[in-house]
Amino acid sequence: MSSKGPVELLRVLLVEDDANDAELLIDALRGEGIEVDPRVVDTEAGYRQALDSFDPHIVISDLSMPSFNGYRALEILREGSALIPFIFVSGTMGEEAAVKALRSGATDYLLKDSLARLSSAVTRAVDEANAEKAREHSENELMRAQRFESLALLAGGLSHDLRNILQPLLLTAEAMLDNDDEVLRKHGALVGDCAKRGLEMVASMLSFARGAKVETERVKLAALFDALLMLLRGSVPRNIEMVIEKPAADLAIEGNHTELQQCLLNLCLNALQAMPEGGTLRLSAEPATIGPDFFADDEQQSPGAYLKLLVSDTGIGMPDEVRGNLFRPFFTTKQTGTGLGLVSCKRIVGNHRGYVRVLSESSKGTTFEIYLPLEGAESSEDNAAPIVGGRSERVLVVVEKLGKQTMLSDALELNGYEVTTAGSGAHAMQKIDELGTPAIVVMDADLNLMSGVETIAALLDRDYRGPLILLVRSDKPVDRDGLPPVERIRFVEKPVSVNQLLRSVREELDATRKSRP
Length: 517
What we know:
Layout: E1 10-15, H1 19-30, E2 36-41, H2 44-53, E3 58-61, H3 70-80, E4 86-90, H4 95-103, E5 108-111, H5 118-176, H6 182-210, E6 217-220, H7 221-232, E7 240-244, E8 252-255, H8 257-273, E9 279-290, E10 304-313, H9 320-323, H10 341-351, E11 355-360, E12 366-373, E13 394-398, H11 402-414, E14 418-422, H12 425-435, E15 440-444, H13 452-461, E16 468-473, E17 489-494, H14 498-515
Parallel strand pairs: 1-2, 1-3, 3-4, 4-5, 7-9, 13-14, 13-15, 15-16, 16-17
Antiparallel strand pairs: 6-8, 9-10, 10-12, 11-12
Helix pairs in contact: 2-3, 5-6, 5-11, 7-8, 8-10, 12-13
């Protein structure tokens, strides 16, 4: 802001009971080239109403009036804002009153018979307030970034612990499916499904915090809607009608079931909260074609065939200022909200190469439109070919976590292998010294007491020439060039399924046997 020429319209709130004095102040500002939008009040009620509705850039106040006074006006302003500048302009203001005014939070003070520096005082006060607002905004953005970094660290540590809990459950469930007891098989299927979904949620959490990729599958929309309806059944109040327009049974897209379910669930719960007096929640899916004019300037343009998911409510809707901040991290209109739900939704849709649109007006409800590309997806299920069992070959399993170690060894032993387990690299070397060299080694890359690289080097020092299956984390890439030169090594991402483990062990043993004379 400058006094050297016309500037943006400056909203000035004048607390003044003399109309002539108010006009004099306004003319003094306009005479210096400051474009002013003034509002004059002389009562506390009028002043409070103006602060809320007028949103002034600056307050200029007389010291005393018959029914109000400047000190009270300053006190009220500072209760709500520490940044809006406040200037006293008084006919008679002694040194003691001036000191009191500044100590109370006033920005400056002037005498009515000496307004020569009014323009410069207003300009400086508004510029300083704007600079302070900019500084606070930068600090808030930095704090948001630091909170995201903390979330990423928390998600990484938590996801690692959860995988250690869920992976043994998944392996146990797969072993239960081979049991002759039908009831046990049903329980195994239930445990396995829960463990699988839990592991997918862990991957989704990592994806949110670190941008790690999650596995895709062929997602059937009808099954997705059924699962969502089951989750919502206990959350829908009686005064809300839920309308689910279920898609055709064969309609499917390539994506991640758990992430899409999380996204739709979040939108539906938000919709329910937006209808405190009741209404209608509608969920539907329909094909759509996107043209070049659909995309915003900052979006990658990819016209074509899409599936449009719609989550609509007849609730309170949103004003423009709320809609414009929906996807800003930590922005929320809820007292107990985190401001991350819609950020997560947009991230999930982006991971699916899709787009989000929001249609909403105050008191007219809200519709979220999610566009996902309609492309064919191959089934991500394990190869259906039968698994060939072991021939009593000895397998050394090197895993620190006892639960995971037990599940892996049990799965191998039940399928015809002789298994030796070790809880560390050093323990593995002791086993080799005692029992001889194994036919194959299955080893977790995340070893602490003796690192994976050190353990592999120790294997080679003991003249181990067999294949190695290294269990690795998708979010923690292994420096393959930095590994010791093992003749055959296969990298298998965790969590590993029983079928994947058995198939990998069998294929590596067979390949090694064929490659040697």
